[in-house]
Design brief:
The complex is a heterotetramer of chains A (about 600), B (about 110), C (about 240) and D (about 280). Chain A is about 60% helix and about 0% strand. With about 600 residues, chain A is mainly α. A two-stranded antiparallel ribbon of chain A has the order 1-2. The longest helix of chain A is centred in the N-terminal third of the chain and has 37 residues. Chain C folds into two domains: about 30 residues, no CATH class; about 200 residues, Cytochrome c oxidase, subunit III, four-helix bundle (Four Helix Bundle (Hemerythrin (Met), subunit A)). In chain C, a hairpin with a 2-residue loop joins strand 1 and strand 2. Chain D has a six-stranded mixed β-sheet with strand order 8-5-1-2-3-11. The radius of gyration of chain D is 28 Å and the shape is elongated. Classes of the chains: A mainly alpha (about 600), B mainly alpha (about 110), C mainly alpha (about 240), D alpha+beta (about 280). Chains in contact: A-B, A-C, A-D, B-C, B-D. The complex binds heme-A (HEA) (2 copies), dinuclear copper ion and copper (II) ion. One heme-A sits at the interface of chains A and D.
């Protein structure tokens, strides 16, 4: 077995050398980087198809696995949203979408999109692929655990999908799973469906914990020489902080899911007060439904930032690279990410303003919630200030970035409406909320994912995605999605509640029938447009334009591997040595408009780089 | 990541410190047991319980888990997140009082 | 455990050192083994789990208008015909602290590469843990015998049984997992895996006595949680 | 076409949509007009920032599109600018938060003279209870609910005897009289919401929640359940009729009291025993 490992007996004698070019031998003082303090990592090299591609320990393969499985769940979520929109826009058009089914679709759509699609894609997918590359590690620190993490996710997804086929179907309790209705008849899927949901969530959390520990320790303890925290690309910062949030927020979900399962299976009354059902008093009593809501949102609010922070990070890198300009206010960006992350543990009950909790909490949570707007605003300003006096490549990646800014600011501002406690009172539980979170979570991070796919595809597959198809994809998605969710706010204003199967006999909706139909049509279009991407990917894999090394002229380490796409172990014989932050674009005096992170100062000594 | 050279002589702590802490833990546990034995009530009970609890927890973390000897970077990373928990506890105290109040007020005669 | 020494930088103590560690390249926790850092972060996450359990318990207990059973009576044990309050719990606490002490010493001897002592102490810890689990099983069966169920109990608020079984059950699971690993590690120590730097099953890393410290962290954490359970569940 | 133009049109379209939209709030029919004002204020500040940010972005896109020979500016940081922006944003946030909190303060502090109304929810319907002459509602418990005691009033509670029971999903209210809605549920979460009144709160089983408002327009309004409560959620409607005092009192006089119900039952009971005796 031992020959499967590369055995690094001693610390590589790298201390006196640098990576930069051929000038081997003497290193000028200014290029000094502290010697390695940790030995090179031993890696297990797979030999068979199974160890190389299925139970693979290479973070890059695991990342792709996560990405593909998450995309699959995303497509399921998309199809569910189509069915929902079919019912909402054209009631009765699809006869099989009964009220029961509708609620099951809403629930599964919400849960899949938030947890199994976005969280898994950002952290599992991009996190695995990019973290080791970007911090200059050979792999995640615990490759085996990392592999187990993916397969736990796989089982979690399998369990989730299985719930579609059990008697009673999947749970239809809303993705927030509020008891008591979650586990009572009267809610579809209150039998096996909800149990499988809880089980699947628990598996997801367990699997995620294994992955998350990997991401954290890799970032904290396995960076390459010269890579300080303040030289990490913001992508890593975003994913890292999101992982911290996940590690601290998922416990609350786990506890909530466990207690609810016990209420269901053993008949405990954690969340169940005395309940009268069809004239009979059930064998419950004394529990507190609001407790579940606190647990859920103690998880749930950090969760929404878990999907937002990686997006914030990635978008910063994309904008910087394609505007050929350093990210403006890097330090502020880092502090904002960390600050938003920390604050997100103190705002959870803004989802519960009208839940009947202690009314005085409203003051506390409104204040903390609005405080979050400040660091977030700084991020927004810095993105647009990065564009200012840049040299902006108007390619597909940049389009996604611009689309992100528009939709995120829009959604963020509507968040401010909701965060301001008394403004939330009339808007809560209406379509205004639905519009808010789709704008800020459904669309904005999705734009980032798409931008990231167009950006990093040349790295992963060695070929460019088609720009022409990409532009079609972008405009259809952006304009389509915007026209779904912008008008949707106004449904909320006229008073249309969310989670309504239909309400065509109400004055609130008769005036908006046309709008509902339009929204549905737009949703079909946007969904269909995603298949352009899938077609683009398949086509490109065969016939795309080869990208070569560092096609975007970026600075960060992932583009600087000896082979493209990078191989197992990432760096060949030598780990890279880092001399600067990844944002040295358009430095005055430099001959190119970019200076890679591994370029030692002596090679660009005449430039005006700032010390980082 | 076997960064410790085999020959390197790692200095460890004297055994005495562990035995001391060990003994202290027994004593403190005994005291917290006595809180129940003598049926202290009210604020006194609570402050004693919490006092012994935090002392014991602190000793275990500081010495048995070596946090006392760890560098501040690790210690701080581990302790700051507890503020979120503290906030959660604090608010849930307010919440249970409120819940109990509405229950007594609206569900029980004379409440 | 010991003061780390890193070639090329001077490690400063205190907050100054913290700032420099954080600002430096490669590692943030200087000289901390990957596995140990991982265990710490995992324990942090686990702390949040137990905190949520205990917070839920507090909220549940605090908001029920029904009388809460008096733990000091419920958990009393007859010794020579006299009911002694919390007797079993006191013994369990004693056993767990004992095992924590042996574990702490095991770690110490592990660092001194004293294979024999380390091995015996780990084994002792494992046996202590096993005793604890056994006593917990006894406590459970006693309560079940007296009619306490997760959904009801004869002494008062139904949530009493629910929280009791859930929280001690979750803690007991942690102990049991710990016991299993303690036995495995005792074997590994005696077999000399750490002296030969034999690769473990889970990882591509070479074996090292630091793994005993990592296991120790877990075990002390289990003890730590018990401190809180003891205070909040049995003494409140 | 330059992509910037399309982005510009999107922004412009959003503004125009907002100005000309036929879909907006129904006229407010309670004292919570202040909520509408805060929303309008938020629209001005938030909308202003949205437009400003996006237009700035569009401007950059036009002005700084890629040119081979141009070099971007190199300026990692601008402390002063960042400081100004932080403070400006903080100011905006405070301007939004302050009125919001003031309104919330009046939302959770119910006027002393408010009429208490017990709103009882179940899957999937509503019924209401008003205090009788004593001005107080009797205490209730879910376990007491049965055909003879549809509200689950505690029988030993003297305040409950004269409570007015409205076993219909339509509630009548007196115009310009503040009401304190006391919500409870016998099964799952619900939420009693009249869009025109703006106010809402969940009905939570196991506790009683509240909010208050003062209707100030007469007319009929639809009540919506806005907290998901199972398959019947979307159909769980009710109604509110706001009337002037005279009509309201007329309506009130026709309602059944709990004591009436008890009396009726006792009568039935005695008749039954008579029948049996015969
Ligand atoms: C990625 C996900 C994401 C993100 C980033 C956010 C961001 C925010 N959200 Fe949102 N939210 C959700 C996902 C998200 N939300 C989801 C999923 C739900 C519903 C869950 C459910 O019930 O099913 C929800 C629901 C929700 C509610 C509950 C509504 C209700 O149910 O009644 C509230 C209330 O406070 C809220 C507030 C906010 C706020 C204040 C922000 C802020 O962080 C936004 C900050 C950003 C900006 C403010 C824009 C940029 C700033 C400027 C350009 C500066 C100028 C601004 C000012 C001067 C104000 N959100
Ligand atoms: C990230 C989260 C996310 C995303 C992307 C979406 C996407 C969509 N959502 Fe949904 N939605 C939620 C999260 C999300 N939603 C949540 C949390 C709820 C609340 C559930 C509840 O109330 O319990 C909800 C509820 C919800 C409702 C309210 C139902 C109700 O209250 O009755 C509606 C109604 O129109 C709706 C519609 C849509 C539509 C039309 C789309 C889409 O069609 C928009 C377009 C989609 C895409 C553009 C992309 C899809 C991506 C892929 C297919 C992957 C491809 C990727 C690669 C190849 C890399 N959603
Ligand atoms: Cu009742 Cu929704
Ligand atoms: Cu939130």
């Amino acid at each position: 077995m031992s020959e499967d490992y590369n055995d690094n007996k001693t610390i590589h004698a790298q201390s006196s050398e640098t990576m930069g070019g051929g000038s081997a031998g003497v290193t000028p003082d200014m290029d000094y980087v502290r010697p390695a303090e940790i030995a090179d990592q031993d890696l297990y090299h797979g030999h068979s198809f199974i160890t190389k591609w299925i139970f693979c320990q290479d973070a890059k393969v695991i990342g792709v696995q996560y990405f593909l499985l998450a995309t699959f769940t995303g497509v399921v979520g998309l199809i569910l949203s189509w069915l929902m929109r079919l019912q909402l826009g054209f009631p009765g058009a699809a006869g099989f979408v009964t009220a029961e089914h509708y609620y099951q679709f809403v629930t599964m759509h919400g849960m899949i999109m938030v947890v199994y699609f976005l969280t898994a894609l950002f952290l599992g997918g991009f996190g695995n692929y990019l973290i080791p590359l970007m911090v200059g590690a050979r792999d995640m620190v615990f490759p085996y655990l990392n592999m187990v993490s993916f397969w736990s996710f796989f089982v979690a997804v399998a369990v989730l999908m299985a719930s579609f086929f059990v008697p009673g179907g999947p749970t239809g309790a809303g993705w927030t799973l509020y008891p008591p209705q979650t586990i009572l008849e009267g809610t579809p899927g209150s039998g096996a469906g909800i149990l499988l949901m809880c089980l699947s969530l628990i598996l997801f959390v367990a699997g995620f914990t294994m992955g998350g520990l990997n991401y954290l320790i890799t970032v904290l303890q396995a960076r390459t020489r010269g890579m300080t925290l303040m030289r990490m690309p913001l992508t890593v910062w975003g994913i890292f902080t999101a992982t911290v949030l996940a590690m601290l927020a998922f416990p609350a979900l786990l506890v909530g899911a466990l207690m609810m399962s016990l209420d269901k299976v053993l008949g405990t009354s954690f969340f169940m007060p005395t309940i009268l059902k069809a004239g009979e008093v059930l064998e419950y009593g004394g529990g507190s439904p609001i407790l579940f809501q606190h647990l859920f949102w103690f998880f749930g609010h950090p969760e929404v930032y878990i999907v937002a922070l990686p997006a914030f990070g990635i978008i910063s890198d994309l904008i910087s690279v394609h505007a050929r300009k350093n990210i403006f206010g890097y330090r502020m960006m880092v502090w904002a990410i960390v600050g938003i992350g920390a604050l997100s543990f103190f705002v959870w009950a803004h989802h519960m303003y009208v839940s009947g909790m202690n009314p005085w909490f409203g003051f506390f949570f409104a204040t903390t919630t609005l405080i979050i707007a400040v660091p977030t605003a700084m991020k927004v300003y810095n993105w647009i200030l990065t564009l200012w006096r840049g040299n902006i490549r108007m390619n597909t990646v940049m389009l996604w970035c611009l689309g992100f800014i528009v939709t995120f600011v829009n959604g963020g501002i509507t968040g401010i409406f909701l965060g301001n406690v008394s403004v939330d009172v009339p808007l809560s539980d209406t379509y205004f909320v639905v519009a808010h979170f789709h704008m800020v979570m459904g669309i904005a991070p999705l734009m980032v994912i798409m931008g990231a796919v167009y950006h990093w595809f040349p790295l992963v597959a060695g070929r460019f995605l088609s720009e022409k198809l990409g532009k079609w994809h972008f405009w259809l998605t952006f304009l389509g999605a915007y026209s779904i969710y912008f008008p949707m706010h106004y449904l909320g204003f006229i008073g249309v509640p969310r989670r309504y199967y239909e309400m065509y006999d109400s004055p609130y909706v008769t005036s908006a029938v046309g709008m509902n139909e339009f929204i549905s049509l737009a949703a079909f279009l946007v969904g269909a447009a995603q298949f352009i991407l899938i077609y683009n990917i398949i086509k490109t894999l065969k016939t795309g334009k080869p990208a070569g090394k560092n096609p975007w002229k970026a600075n960060s380490l992932e583009w600087l591997t000896p082979t493209v796409p990078p191989e197992h172990g990432n760096w060949g014989d030598r780990l890279p040595v880092v001399h600067r932050w990844p944002y040295d674009f358009s430095v005055p005096g430099a001959k190119d408009d970019y200076i890679t992170q591994t370029t030692p100062p002596s090679e660009v000594s005449n430039t005006g780089v700032e010390k980082t | 990541m076997s960064n410790t050279d085999k020959k390197e002589q790692t200095s460890t702590h004297k055994i005495g410190i562990y035995l001391w802490i060990w003994g202290l833990l027994f004593v403190l546990s005994f005291f917290s047991y006595m809180v129940d034995w003598y049926q202290f009530q009210g604020m006194l009970r609570w402050s004693l319980i919490l006092f012994f609890m935090f002392l014991k927890a602190g000793l275990i973390m500081a010495f048995f888990m070596h946090l006392f000897w760890e560098r501040y970077a690790l210690v701080n990373v581990l302790l700051w997140p507890m503020t979120a928990i503290a906030c959660f506890i604090f608010l849930m105290v307010a919440e249970f009082k409120y819940t109990l109040f509405t229950r007594l007020f609206y569900f029980f005669v004379g409440g | 455990m010991s003061e780390p020494k890193i070639e090329g930088i001077e490690l400063k103590p205190g907050f100054k050192g913290m700032a420099e560690d954080t600002g430096s390249d490669q590692t943030m926790f200087k000289g901390v083994h990957w596995g140990k850092a991982m265990m710490w972060i995992f324990l942090l996450s686990d702390t949040f789990i137990f905190s949520c359990f205990l917070i839920a318990y507090m909220k549940g207990r605090g908001s029920t208008p029904v009388e809460w059973p008096n733990p000091s009576e419920v958990f009393a044990l007859d010794a020579f015909g006299v009911p002694v309050p919390l007797l079993l719990i006191a013994i369990m606490t004693f056993v767990l602290i004992t095992s924590s002490g042996t574990m702490a010493l095991a770690v110490k001897y592990g660092y001194e590469k004293n294979r024999k002592m380390c091995g015996w102490l780990v084994l002792a810890t494992a046996i202590g843990g096993l005793t604890f689990v056994g006593m917990q099983a006894f406590e459970w069966s006693k309560l079940i015998h007296e009619g306490v169920r997760p959904w009801e109990n004869p002494f008062g608020a139904a949530q009493f049984g629910s929280f009791f079984f859930m929280i001690t059950g979750f803690h007991g699971t942690h102990v049991s997992i710990g016991v299993i690993f303690l036995f495995i590690y005792a074997y590994k120590v005696f077999a000399g895996h750490y002296d030969q730097q034999k690769r473990g099953w889970f990882t591509s890393m070479k074996g090292d006595y630091v793994e005993i410290e990592i296991l120790g962290l877990y075990w002390h954490f289990v003890d730590l949680v018990w401190v809180f359970i003891f205070a909040f569940f049995y003494l409140w | 076409m330059h992509p910037g133009i399309i982005f510009f049109l999107v922004i412009l379209g959003s503004i125009l949509f907002h100005i000309f939209t036929p879909w907006y709030w129904t006229d407010v029919a309670s004292n919570w007009g202040g909520m509408d004002d805060t929303i309008t204020l938020t629209f001005w500040i938030g909308g202003g920032v949205f437009v400003a940010v996006c237009l700035f972005m569009v401007y950059c896109v036009f002005k700084f599109s890629y040119k081979e020979n141009r070099k971007a500016e190199y300026k990692p940081e601008d402390k002063k600018l960042e400081k100004i922006l932080t403070w400006a944003t903080t100011l905006g946030v405070v301007a939004l938060l302050a009125p919001g909190l003031v309104i919330w303060n009046s939302y959770v502090n119910v006027p002393k003279n408010a009429l208490e109304v017990d709103v009882m929810a179940w899957q999937w319907g509503w019924q209401y209870r008003l205090p009788g002459k004593d001005g107080k509602l009797g205490t209730t418990q879910v376990v007491n609910v049965n055909d003879n005691n549809p509200f689950g009033i505690n029988l030993d509670d003297p305040y409950g005897k004269d409570d007015v029971m409205i076993q219909s999903d339509v509630l009548n209210l007196e115009n310009n009289v503040p009401v304190k809605i006391l919500l409870r549920s016998v099964d799952v979460l619900h939420n009693w919401y009249v869009p025109q009144f703006r106010a809402k709160m969940d009905a939570v089983p196991g506790i009683v929640t509240f909010y208050w408002f003062e209707p100030n327009k007469t007319g009929e309004f639809e009540v919506l359940c806005v907290e998901y409560c199972g398959v019947g959620h979307y159909a769980m409607r009710g109604g509110v009729i706001v009337q002037e005092t005279q009509e309201y009192n007329k309506w009130l006089d026709q309602q059944e009291l709990f004591s009436d119900l008890i009396a009726k039952q006792e009568k039935m009971e005695t008749e039954k025993t008579k029948l049996v005796k015969k």
